[in-house]
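TASK: fixed-backbone design
INPUT:
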């Protein structure tokens, strides 16, 4: 349970320093993890980014303070990290659906988010089918995008599917890893995400190439319609498999593999590849 304990420690750290200028480096260090993997794990387990969580918690506390005190809106805005009352009001409306003044006047309901608690249930009823593979480094060509977190990945897939890019990539797949890949790599600005295919040869126009390093891989079968089957598999890996296995994350590139199966079919087959040690 060490990994989950570290994650809960990081959440406790966020709560203790919620009114300070938190950095992802500080939070990940408390969680004994890299920034890349802490953000990935947090997002997969909670369905929101670390920054989303911090913002929601701050706006929850701000609303409660407006309800119970006579503090000025401008002072509350500054206290919870907003440089202007206008920016505070815009964010406040987005979460609560009403203005700070309306909360002060008790004219509406607020939407509150409370501190997260990581709970784990280890179950043996539903099996997780996986195998451990050794694989040399290989090259992937595709569209390379730098992101702060996971939140833009779904929109990127939709865009590249709609404009025919993924169909073009599928025709280039001449490597020994067969299928469309969603590769996630650590990056100084957050994550580097690649939608591409394993490929050997000159880099085609409009695409870039990245190298996936040699690794020991835990390869998980994913059966079911997208995106729920993939989301469920990731959550089970972090909640069930990692805490109970003898493996640890290696901290390098990880990827999802999508076959030619119908993504909306309940029998659709795909894979998750995680580098382990």
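OUTPUT:
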């Amino acid at each position: 349970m060490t990994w989950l304990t570290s994650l809960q420690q990081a959440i406790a750290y966020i709560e203790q320093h919620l009114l300070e200028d938190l950095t992802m480096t500080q939070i990940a260090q408390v969680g004994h993890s890299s920034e890349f993997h802490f953000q990935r794990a947090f997002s997969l387990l909670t369905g929101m980014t670390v920054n989303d969580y911090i913002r929601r918690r701050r706006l929850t506390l701000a609303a409660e303070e407006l309800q119970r005190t006579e503090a000025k809106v401008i002072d509350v805005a500054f206290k919870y990290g907003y440089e202007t009352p206008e920016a505070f009001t815009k964010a406040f409306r987005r979460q609560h659906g009403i203005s700070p003044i309306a909360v002060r006047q008790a004219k509406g309901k607020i939407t509150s988010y409370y501190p997260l608690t990581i709970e784990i249930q280890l179950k043996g009823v539903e099996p997780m089918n996986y195998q451990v593979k050794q694989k040399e480094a290989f090259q992937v060509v595709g569209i390379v995008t730098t992101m702060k977190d996971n939140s833009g990945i779904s929109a990127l897939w939709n865009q590249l599917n709609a404009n025919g890019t993924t169909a073009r990539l599928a025709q280039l797949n001449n490597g020994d890893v067969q299928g469309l890949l969603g590769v996630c790599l650590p990056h100084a600005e957050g994550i580097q995400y690649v939608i591409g295919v394993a490929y050997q040869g000159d880099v085609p126009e409009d695409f870039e190439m990245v190298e996936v390093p040699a690794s020991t891989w835990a390869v998980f079968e994913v059966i079911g319609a997208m995106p729920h089957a993939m989301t469920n598999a990731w959550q089970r890996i972090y909640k069930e498999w990692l805490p109970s296995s003898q493996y640890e994350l290696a901290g390098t590139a990880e990827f999802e593999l999508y076959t030619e199966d119908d993504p909306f079919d309940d029998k659709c087959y795909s894979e998750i590849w995680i580098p382990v040690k």
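COMMENT: Residues 50-68 form the longest helix (19 residues).
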